[in-house]
Amino acid sequence: MDEEKKNSGNVDIGEEIEDIKSAPEDVNEASDEAAGTTDGADKEDDKSSDKSAKKDPKDEAIKELKDKFTRQMAEFDNFRKRTEKEKSAMYEVGAKSVIEKILPIVDNFERGLGSVTEEDKGSAFVEGMNMVYRQLTKALEDMDVKPIEALGKEFNPEYHNAVMHVDDEEAGDNIIVEEFQKGYTYRDSVVRHSMVKVAN
Questions:
Q1: 153 with 132, same domain?
Q2: How many CB atoms lie within 10 A of CB 137?
Q3: Considering the domain boundaries, does residue 117 fall inside one?
Q4: pLDDT in tens, the chain (200 residues)
Q5: Which CATH number does the domain housing residue 172 bear?
Q6: Is 192:183 a contact under the CB 8 Å cutoff?
Q7: Does this model's pTM top 0.85?
Q8: Shared domain check, 169 and 132
């Protein structure tokens, strides 16, 4: 009995020793399996990072369309501003052309009214001419057409056109002493220069 127990005890101890010897292999296998799982996880992370690194074609298309839309809106805004500016310039050119054609009529009214004698000033015809003249000049004023001040002012080539020079000691140097034809401006731009005589 004792021998069997001893033998059985020896067998048990031997089995335990064998188990211990084989344990490192199992541990290694387990560690290898764990390493394999971690490597797989790393590979999956790498794949996900690669996917995130690669841009989605839909996002690229959306971005391209947004850029195209922004550029087209900027081009349209520039076109609108340019068109408004051109329209304003065309309107101003057209208005100046009409004003230039009206000014000789104003000149004739002024010459005709200036030649009326004292006896005829109270006549109905002259009063009618005065009314038409005042209405015409009022319409020009409403259009922002203004006469250029010349007589007694210093000569300014931007507004005046000197056609004669005269030596006049009483008048100052470069002073306008006579106006032959009245000049006009439209919105601060000259439509017609004043035709004047300047003292030296």
A1: no
A2: 15
A3: yes
A4: 444 444 444 445 555 545 544 544 444 454 454 444 445 445 555 555 555 556 788 888 898 899 999 999 999 999 999 999 888 888 888 889 999 999 999 999 999 999 998 888 889 999 999 999 999 999 999 999 999 999 999 999 999 999 999 888 787 888 999 999 999 999 889 999 999 999 98
A5: 2.30.22.10
A6: yes
A7: no
A8: no
Number of domains in the chain: 2
Residues 160/194, Cβ–Cβ less than 8 Å? yes
Largest Cα–Cα distance in the chain? 173
Q: Residues 131, 168: one domain?
A: no
- Residue 3 burial (CB < 10 Å; 0-12/13-18/19+)? exposed
Q: Is residue 81 part of a domain?
A: yes
CA separation, residue 116 to residues 125, 130, 138 (Å): 11, 11, 22
> Can you give the residue range of the structural domain that contains 170?
146-200
Write the single-letter amino acid at 132.
V
Residue 54 CA to chain centroid, in angstroms?
A: 38
